[in-house]
Specification:
Largest sheet: 7 strands, antiparallel
Number of strands: 27
Strand content: 35-45%
Number of domains: 2
Radius of gyration: 20 Å
Structural class: mainly beta
Number of helices: 3
């Protein structure tokens, strides 16, 4: 990858962001009024960490999230619903950054592609609007994104959208599509660190990942047995693959055995270290557990979630 001095490519931050309590749910967040899992879905809107910025359409502007995702917006980088370039007025940027696995779980944003977990450097969801109307990226004048790098790995760019899976119309996963754009690894001399640099092509889920290419012989399905007081209508089970900072969700549920499973959707590597995360709700009380395991072939893991406050769940997810 080419190295550049990031100071020569990015502008000085001059717009600060703030979290606003009056924001509507993102399109990427599951509808809390959906018929399936309606008793639990709203937790994702309570756990998400959404930030909002107001920028000027007439000037080059830059935002920086709390987790240091930086985006520079040149004048004329957005197009309205009529196809006209937006060059005046204020533009509202809503963004959720998910650089850590706990943030991905809090937003039900999994990192599975072609039936295998991706090795992730983090993701974010972004949308832009003016006067309440959605905007899209001007392909002739795209925003520039800078994301922090943990280990200087070569990364690919993926864009994602919510897609219903199986028969669960209200339960969704992310359908990722690889973008062919080169992701440059650049050096920031001011912080003695490296960052990923790429242009933003679309306003949706954006993820930096690479393919793991595991051997089929080293992959397995697993099951997670939950207490009889829970079903797939009031709970979720996530798998955090600690070695590759990847997150998956268990979709198939057997009501007779009380077991979630990976089913035919994907498999995970044997001998990997994982956290099994349970989030549930019963009688207006949240339940949660996070347990560590080493993946064994075709194993069933029994978990025993207990009552947790929403704030305690946030703290636990933040530590993943």
């Amino acid at each position: 990858m080419k190295n550049f001095n990031i100071l020569g490519l990015l502008l000085i931050l001059f717009f600060s962001g703030c979290t606003r309590p009056d924001l509507p749910p993102f399109p990427g967040i599951i509808d809390p009024n959906a018929s399936n899992r309606k008793t639990i879905n709203n937790i994702f809107n309570l756990l998400k960490k959404q930030e909002t910025f107001d920028i000027s359409a007439s000037n080059t502007s830059k935002i920086s999230t709390k987790n240091d995702i930086q985006i520079s917006f040149p004048s004329g980088c957005f197009i309205d619903e009529a196809g006209s370039v937006v060059r005046s007025g204020s533009v509202r940027i809503d963004i959720i950054d998910m650089l850590k696995p706990g943030d991905m779980i809090a937003n039900n944003a999994t990192t599975i592609y072609r039936n295998q977990p991706l090795i992730s450097q983090g993701q974010f969801y972004i949308q832009a609007s003016q006067n309440g109307k959605s905007l899209r990226v001007n392909p002739a004048n795209r925003p520039l994104v800078s994301m922090p790098s943990e280990d200087n790995s070569t990364m690919n760019l993926f864009y994602g959208q919510r897609t219903p899976i199986g028969s669960l119309s209200a339960d969704s996963t992310i359908n990722w599509t690889q973008n062919q754009q080169t992701v440059n690894l650049v050096n920031d001399s001011s912080t003695q660190s490296s960052r990923y640099l790429f242009n933003l092509d679309s306003l949706k889920f954006v993820n930096l990942d690479i393919f793991a290419n595991y051997s089929a012989a080293n992959l397995t399905s697993i099951k997670v047995k939950i207490p009889s007081t829970f079903t797939d209508t009031n709970s979720y089970v996530f798998i955090h693959l600690k070695d590759i900072k990847s997150v998956s969700s268990l979709y198939d549920f057997d009501k007779t055995s009380q077991e979630y499973s990976t089913g035919s959707h994907y498999k995970i590597p044997i001998n990997f270290a994982i956290n099994i995360i349970f989030i549930g709700r019963r009688n207006n009380q949240y339940f949660y557990s996070s347990t560590s395991h080493i993946v064994e072939a075709n194993k069933t893991y029994a978990i025993s979630p207990t009552a947790w406050s929403l704030e305690a769940i946030k703290v636990s997810l933040n530590g993943l």
